């Protein structure tokens, strides 16, 4: 069962965006995306909060997520979080096998 994590990184004076930039420019993001079981690893910037970055991080299953957490990349990620003095909040999602109700389709423009 796939797992999606929304990780909110918050700092000061643009540090969260600098963190995301360094993660990308240093190759860490590409390395995470290449890990077995990674489905998505992408940063987004909330319009209403310039000091927060959202990471949407999806994995095929708990085993893939556990392997990622045990990988050498985690020490690099942790070091960058410390460098930029970031605080985090996490939300965990699992798929709803039933899917969205048909009535929701009326609100989606394709």
Walk me through this protein's architecture.
It is built from 4 helices and 4 strands. The protein is an alpha+beta fold and 110 residues long. It has a 4-stranded antiparallel β-sheet with strand order 2-3-1-4. A hairpin with a 7-residue loop joins β2 and β3 (52-59). The protein is globular. The two termini are 27 Å apart.
Average pLDDT works out at: 94
| CA radius of gyration | 16 Å
Category by helix and strand content? alpha+beta
Order of strands side by side in the largest beta sheet? Answer: 2-3-1-4
The biggest beta sheet reads: 4 strands, antiparallel
Encode the helix/strand succession as letters.
Answer: EHHEEHHE
Strand content: 25-35%
Distance between the termini: 27 Å
Shape: globular
Low-confidence stretches: none
Helix content: 25-40%
Q: Determine the number of helices (DSSP H or I, runs of at least 4 residues).
A: 4
User: How many DSSP-defined strands?
Assistant: 4
